[in-house]
UniProtKB/TrEMBL annotation:
It is found in: Cytoplasm; Nucleus. Gene3D superfamilies: Vaccinia Virus protein VP39. Its EC number is 2.1.1.85. It comes from the Eukaryota. GO terms for biological process: methylation. CDD domains: AdoMet_MTases. GO terms for molecular function: protein-L-histidine N-tele-methyltransferase activity. This is protein-histidine N-methyltransferase. The keyword S-adenosyl-L-methionine applies. GO terms for cellular component: cytoplasm; nucleus. Belongs to the methyltransferase superfamily. METTL18 family. The keyword 4Fe-4S does not apply. Keywords: Cytoplasm, Methyltransferase, Nucleus, S-adenosyl-L-methionine, Transferase.
Length: 214
């Protein structure tokens, strides 16, 4: 992954869960506004996804946040930014450079945590070069089963004792979902449990906890 230290500042902001986030159109990545993602090119990071907000709300209930936190597929990065506000040192990763430069970086600046965050872009994989983490966060990243090996490799090589995964029950059109991901995680050497289930008209959503068996 490649570290980013120069970001595009914007005043086009909204707020959610007490945090600022940047509003940017898909033209930033050369796509139509109706496009949520294009596999291997753009993985949806410009949109503020509801499971990211679920995870942010959950983290707000915790009295203690670990010292070193990694958020994978961060997009807007609100869960990680909240951890930084609580004093954690946070690494924020997204697949797309444009997302990091135009959205995540600006959110970090506007929420006053620039000195506590490092930002990276690129695909998942072996992240052992970043050192060990206490906690890994990830939201809406299990939609495509083809990505499970690289995502789980990233989680495992982070050496974290806990990973929180915020996700929908099933992702229509791409085939990912809670059951398939949990099985893949078990096969990869993790124990999984459901910390929270959220049912509403639009979807059923979860926060899962992954802990290594090793």
């Amino acid at each position: 992954m490649i570290e980013v230290t120069e970001w595009v500042e914007s005043n086009n902001l909204k707020t959610s869960e007490g945090l600022f986030y940047t509003v940017v159109g898909n033209s930033t990545v050369g796509l139509k506004e109706t496009t949520d993602l294009v596999s291997g090119r753009y993985e949806g990071g410009l949109k503020l996804w509801e499971c990211s907000l679920d995870l942010t709300k959950y983290l707000q209930t915790l009295s203690i946040i670990p010292a070193r936190v990694l958020e994978l597929g961060c997009g807007h990065g609100l869960p990680g930014i909240l951890c930084a506000q609580k004093g954690s040192s946070v690494y924020l990763q997204d697949y797309n450079e444009e997302v990091i430069r135009h959205v995540t970086g600006n959110n970090v600046i506007r929420n006053g945590v620039k000195d506590r965050c490092k930002l990276f872009y690129g695909p998942w994989g072996d992240l052992s070069n970043l050192g060990s983490f206490d906690l890994v966060l990830t939201s809406e990243t299990i939609y495509n089963p083809e990505y499970y090996p690289s995502l789980l490799t990233a989680i495992r090589t982070s050496q974290a004792r806990c990973c929180l995964v915020a996700c929908k029950n099933y992702y229509f059109g791409v085939g990912g979902g809670v059951e398939l991901f949990a099985k893949s995680a078990e096969d990869f050497g993790f124990s999984t449990q459901t910390l929270l289930r959220i049912d509403d008209i639009a979807s059923t959503r979860y926060i899962l906890e992954l802990t290594p068996k090793y």
